[in-house]
Design the sequence.
């Protein structure tokens, strides 16, 4: 039996994407998106639960993200879940779970430059400068 690590989200950007570069010059963009879940509580009141997702895009996908996405825009993100560890500025070990984007589509716009996919794998976590983390 095989394994599958794939996530698909539709949500709104919580902030403008940020781009950084590894010491090898590979672009990496980060942003957050919010997804909402609607349900009724025991008293029948409508409740909205917002979940925030950290998204990381590499290479050409990263460059596309900073060119076309901005706070508030609705996007479809397809990718894989990745958890990594790093040491913060004070030397404390931290753990972060993020979505490594493989495909992003800007929603609510005519089709043209509204979709991009990442064909290649992202560099290994060791390739990221420690001062670049967290995103």
Sequence:
């Amino acid at each position: 039996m095989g394994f599958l690590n794939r996530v698909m989200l539709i949500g709104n950007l919580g902030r403008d994407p940020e781009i950084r570069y590894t010491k090898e010059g590979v672009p990496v963009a980060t942003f957050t998106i919010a997804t909402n879940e609607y349900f009724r509580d025991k008293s029948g009141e409508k409740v909205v639960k917002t979940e925030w997702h950290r998204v990381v895009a590499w290479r050409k996908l990263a460059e596309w993200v900073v060119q076309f996405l901005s706070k508030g825009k609705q996007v479809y993100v397809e990718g894989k879940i990745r958890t990594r560890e790093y040491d913060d500025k004070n030397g404390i070990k931290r753990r972060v779970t993020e979505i490594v984007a493989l495909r992003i589509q800007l929603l609510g716009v005519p089709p043209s430059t509204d979709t991009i996919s990442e064909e290649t794998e992202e560099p290994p976590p060791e390739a990221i400068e420690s001062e670049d983390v967290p995103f």
